[in-house]
Amino acid sequence: MKIDRLMGIAIxxxxxxxxxxxxxxxxxxxxxxxxxxxxxxxxxxxxxIQSSYGADGGYQIVDTYVMEKQLANxxxxxxxxxxxxxxxxxxxxxxxEKTLYKMNSxxxxxxxxxxxxxxAAHENREVNNQIQLLExxxxxxxxxxxxxxxxxxxxxxxxxxPASVIYKWFNWYLVGYYEKYQDYCMFKxxxxxxxxxxxxxxxxxxxxxxxxxRERSSQKVIEIKLRGKAxxxxxxKEYLNGHIIKEFENGDFEFCFSVPEKETxxxxxxxSLGSEIRVIGPQSVIDRILATCNDLFKEYGESQ
Length: 304
Known about the structure:
Layout: H1 2-16, H2 21-28, H3 32-44, E1 49-52, E2 58-61, H4 74-90, H5 94-104, H6 125-140, E3 142-149, E4 155-168, E5 171-178, E6 183-188, E7 192-201, H7 208-218, E8 221-228, H8 233-239, E9 243-247, E10 253-260, H9 265-272, E11 277-281, H10 283-302
Antiparallel strand pairs: 1-2, 3-4, 3-7, 4-5, 5-6, 8-10, 8-11, 9-10
Helix pairs in contact: 2-3, 4-5
């Protein structure tokens, strides 16, 4: 509907600032001419639109404007409540519970068709205590220190500026600014011990957008291709979160998925599938599997 598009455009401009007509047309799936007409409609409705021309031209809402009318409807609140319930299933926080209670009062009581359950992320009590401590450190903008066991099983003392706590790849991580590298690093909470907040304050202000870009780029992600037998197709799709790139007449298939190189979850899945799958590449993963199988053969062969 046009009214929904107009409201969406206004919110988009408030969040993104000056935007070209072409970009808005792509975002809202209409023509650039329709966007131009929408701008006139918004301006006539009392939303002050500024336009500029040239290579850096576009539309924007004047900086002093504040949208006072209620823009969210019951469907919007239902989505917000669903997201908050998912968050609450993963992490216990009184402020979060209060927010959820407030948002629940704004809905019409209808149950959304989709729900989120991250209770698996809530099972480790020690990790939840760490999250609460890190939340306080981030709020207070204070440096934390801890002992960390890396992927090479080396235990090292760490001192970082905590910037964010995220849940991804089936684990909780701290994203912290590590002065030694002058960059953001990710630390898995289950590998952290003796976590404490120091009295030292952060030396820099952490921008959420930059943190995301840096931590994403710092992760080495590899693409793995394998050939599997028909009977493990559903398991590959369920546990490896990839896609089938080729299927054969007998039901066998080729599968592709991307994972963080040093995470062990996906590697354990590959080993559990045994001879039902064969990794095609990269060679580093094939060599790793061969080395593991060799070690296992020696270990169990010697015990016979």
